[in-house]
Amino acid sequence: MSRRILVVLSVLAGLAGGSAYGSEAGIKQAFQGRFPAAAVESVTRTPFAGIYEVQFDGQIAYTDDKINFVLFGNLYDMRGGAERNLTRERGAQVTLQTLRKSTDLAIKRVRGTGKRVIYTFEDPNCGYCKELQKELAKVTDVTIYTFLWPILSQDSVDKSRAVWCAKDRGKAWDELMSHGTTPQNDGKCDTPIEKNMQLAQRFGVRGTPAIFFADGRMNPGVLPADKLEQAMNSAASR
Hints:
Elements: H1 3-16, H2 24-34, E1 40-45, E2 52-56, E3 59-63, E4 70-71, E5 76-77, E6 84-85, H3 86-101, E7 107-111, E8 116-122, H4 127-136, E9 142-148, H5 154-164, H6 169-179, H7 193-203, E10 210-213, E11 218-220, H8 225-236
Parallel strand pairs: 8-9
Antiparallel strand pairs: 1-2, 2-3, 3-4, 5-6, 7-9, 8-10, 10-11
């Protein structure tokens, strides 16, 4: 861990003093006042005395209770002789919470019991996404939420709209990705494509496919079926 981060955190703890804003709600309001362009979502006490976690625009920062100092970086818990990256863990939790709240923006497919869950961001013209389709066909007992993210071309946008406007979106997506069959409709319905773009940006997704597991971890790119199984089982056990 960076010595600089430890030093800054120590300074913050020393300067925190009394609670200038009195509560997490007060700190949230004060932080929003200092940074009006940021959409502050929550403020939470950390295990580190006098330091608060601030979530905004999909990011995590730390501040004292006077908003005199703001730190962007990783907060580590070194207690018990084990090093835990609290920032990374919290980021994964926030990502998962957001994905769960956004499933109405995704195509849902259930295989077997559907007891395991993954989330994907895909483009219909992405060759690697079609490879992922083949690997997912080998996996059972999973619920797949696919967020349409057409970034490659206007044709990708048109196909995504046609899939979303289809009567059976899951079947339409499978037919398109497995057989190249585009749904026969005009694609003129309300779609979540713009919101999905914002989600991808929030999560720092850079390309397709992107796979998120049930513990909030993200894998960029295709995984073979056996690796998907391992990752899903690992996520389910956490």
